[in-house]
Amino acid sequence: MSTPVAMQPVAEPATGRNGPRPAKRLTGFMPLIALVALVAALTVADPDFLTPRSLTAVARTAAPLIVLAAGATLIVLCGGIDLSIAALASLSTVLLALWLPNLGGMATPVVIAVAAAIGAVQGLAHVLLRIPSFIVTLGGMSILSAVALVVSGAGTVRVVDDSPVKWLELYVGGYVPMSAAMALLVVALIAAVVKATPLHSWISATGYSESAARLAGTPVDLVKIGAFCVSGACAGFAAVMLVSRQFSGGPTMADNLLLPAVAAIVVGGTAITGGHGSLWRSLAGALVVTLLRVGLPIVGVPSAYEQILYGVIIVVAVALTLDWSKVSIIK
Amino acid sequence: MTVESGAAVPRRNSRRGTAFRDAGPPVALVVIFSVFAVLSPQFRSIDNVQNIVDAAAVLAVVTCGITFVLMMGSIDLSAAGVMGASALTVSLLVANNRNDNDFGLVGIAAAVVLGCAFGCLSGLALVLLKVPSFMATLGVSAIGLGVATLMFAGVQPNISDAMLKSWAIERFLGLSYLTWIAAACILLGWLVQRYTRLGRYAFAIGGAEEVLTLSGVKVKPYKVAVFTLAGAFYGLGGVMVTSQLGAGLVQAGNGYDFSAITAAVVGGTLLTGGRGGILHSAVGVVLVMVLTNGLVQVGVSPYWQGGVEGLIVVAAVAAAVIPQRRRNQVVK
Questions:
Q1: Is the dihedral of CA B329, A132, B143, B276 positive or negative?
Q2: A128 in a domain, yes or no?
Q3: Best label site of A92, B20, B108, B190, fewest CB within 10 Å?
Q4: Which residue of B211, B314, B326 to mutate against A (max A Cβ within 10 Å)?
Q5: Which of A180, A183, A160 is closest to A248 using CA atoms?
C-alpha cells in the first residue's frame, strides 16, 4: 500500500527465521490452540456438539469459506489483499445457475475458468497499472456486484436440474461431506504445488521484500497475477459449492462471506504485511471462524453479535500477526 | 514551517501537473454535464438539477469526512457501519414508534458523538495496534453493523420527529434543508482544512510523515483526531439518511463508503495522501451524482451504478499513478 520508509536502520533482517520471538512462536500455534479451545468449550456448553451429525454440518458450512480463504491467502502472502472474492463468488453462483441448463456438466469448469480469468484481469490491473491491490479489488467488488445484479435481473436464479453439481452433496465413507473433502483437497493441492515448486520461495520473497525479490530476478509480476488467478478460481469453486447447497444462484448470495474469509486468513496467523503464513493456517482459521459462527447460538448469544465478533477478530488478529519490524509507517 | 515545506516541496516540482490535476475535475464535470444535457431533455430541466444537488447532500457529508482520512494517506472503509449505527441511534432517540424517547436535537447530537466514537476506535486501532487503516476500518465497519443490528432488534423504528422529517422535505431557496446542511459541512470542512492545525497536519502527514515525525511533531494524536472527525461526518450522514427514509435502517450507509472514496478520488484527492482537499471532493461528489443521474436518464440500468463507480475509481487512481510509476516500484 504505502512504500515503507525505514526511519532507523533496521538491524534485524525481516525474514523472521532466525530466533522467533516468544510472542511470534505463540501466534504460530494460535489457530490450533483456538480451534481446540473452541471445540472443548462448545462440547462443554452442549454435549451433543461432538456427534457426527453436528460435526458434518460444521464441515459442510465451512467448505466454501475454506476454499475462499485458501485462494485469498496466496494474495495476502504476496503482500496484497483481495476484497473481491465474495462478490466474485456471488457473480459465479449467478453464472452457474444461468449456464447449468445449457452447458450441463461443463458449466462447473467453465464457471471456474471464467472466475479465474476475472481474477487474472484484476491481477493484471494491479501489476500493470500499479494500483494498490485493495483499490483494484474494491473497485472489482463494486463492478462484479453490478454485473451480477444486471445479469440476474436483481433476483434469485433457481436451478431446476441440479444433477451436474449434486455430487458435492454426497458423503465420502458415509460421514465426511464431499464438499468438505473437496475443500481439503483444494488446500492440499495448492499447498503441495506451492511447496514442490520454486513458487514457495517466490511468493515469500515477494511478500517479505518485493523490491529485493525483483532485484534477485524473481518473476514478481507473474507470481502476483498467478495468485489473483488462483484466488478467482477458488471463488468460482466456492460458488459451485454454494449452488449445490442452495439450488439457486443469487447476486448477493456470497457477499457475507468476505469478512469471515478475511478473518479466517488473519486468525490463521498469515501476516497481512505478506510473506509469513501458509494455506494450512487459513484452513485452521476458517474452521475457527465457522465454529464461532455455529457456536454463538449454542452458547446463547444472539447472532447480531456475529458481525461485532468478526470486526474485533480482524483487528486483533491483524495486530497480533503484523510484522512490526517491516513497516515503520502504517497508513 | 514543517507544514509549509511538507506540502509545498512536491508541488513546486510538478507545478504544471498539479495545475492540470486541479483543473481536470471541474472541466470533466462541465463536459459530462453538457453531454447529458444534449442527450436527455429531462436531464437539463431545473427540477432534475435540484434533484441532483439534493441527492448529493448525504454523499457530500460522508465525503467531507473521508477526504481528511485520504489526505493523510490512510483509507476509511467504515462509513457503512458507522452510518448504520448512527441511523439506528438517532431513530431510537427522537420521537419514534419503538419507544417513548423524544430527545430531538440531543438525539441527533448523540448519533454524531457515536460516529466520533467509532472513528476514534479506528484511529486507536491504527495508532496503538498498528493495524493498517483499511483493515482497522473494515473491522470497525463490521462492529458498527453489528451494533446497528442489535439496536434494530427485528422491528424497524419509524421516526415521527417533525424536525428531523422536515430536513428532507422542507425547502429553502429551492433546495432541501439537507442540502444546506451539506453545504455547511463543506464550509466547515474547508475551514478546518485551511485554518486549523489539524487540517494542516493531515496534509503534512500524507505528504511526508517521516519528515513531520523527525521534526518532533507527535503525529499519533492527530491521526486519531482525523479519524474521529471523519466519524462525526459519517454519524451526521447516518442522521441525514434517517431523515430521508423516515426510518432507521441497518443498511442506511450501504454503498456510501465506496461512493465517497470514488467522489474524493475523482475530485483529485490522491490515495497516497498529501493532495486534494474538501473543495476538490465537493466537485467530485457533484461529478459522481451527475454521472449516476445522467446514466439513468439516458436509459442505463441503475444496477450499473456501482460498476460505473468501480471503473471510475480504478481509472482515476491509475491516471494519478502513471506520472510516478517508475519511482515507487513497490505497490502492495
A1: positive
A2: yes
A3: B20
A4: B314
A5: A160
CB contact (8 A) between residue B313 and residue A139 = yes
Q: How many domains does chain A have?
A: 1
Q: Which residues of A touch B310 (CB under 8 A)?
A: 138-143, 146
User: Is a pLDDT exceeding 70 seen at residue A11?
Assistant: no
Q: How many CB atoms lie within 10 A of CB B84?
A: 30
| B133: closest chain A residue by CA | A331
Residue among A81, A138, A316 minimizing CB distance to B258: A138
Q: Is B331 part of the contact surface with chain A (CB cutoff 8 Å)?
A: yes
Asked if B119 and B78 count as a contact pair (C-beta separation under 8 A), the reply is: yes
Q: Let me know if residue A123 belongs to a domain.
A: yes
Q: Does position A211 have pLDDT exceeding 80, yes or no?
A: yes
Residue-wise pLDDT for B21-72, tens only, equals 677 788 888 888 888 888 888 888 888 888 888 889 999 999 999 999 999 9
At B154, list the grid cell. Answer: 427485528
First-last CA distance in chain A: 8
Closest CB to A135 among B141, B317, B325: B317
What are the domain boundaries of chain B?
2-9+42-322
Q: Scan for cell 485462494, then name that residue.
A: A71
Q: Which of A139, A149, A307 sits opposite B314 (nearest CB)?
A: A139
For residue A233, the enclosing domain spans 61-253
Architecture of domain B2-9+42-322: Orthogonal Bundle (1.10)
Instruction: For residue A301, tell me if it sits in a domain.
Output: no
CA A32 to chain CA centroid, Å, is: 18
* Residue A125 within any structural domain of the chain: yes
**Mutate: best of A145, A147, A307, partner B, most B CBs <10 A:** A307
Are the beta carbons of B66 and B126 closer than 8 angstroms? no
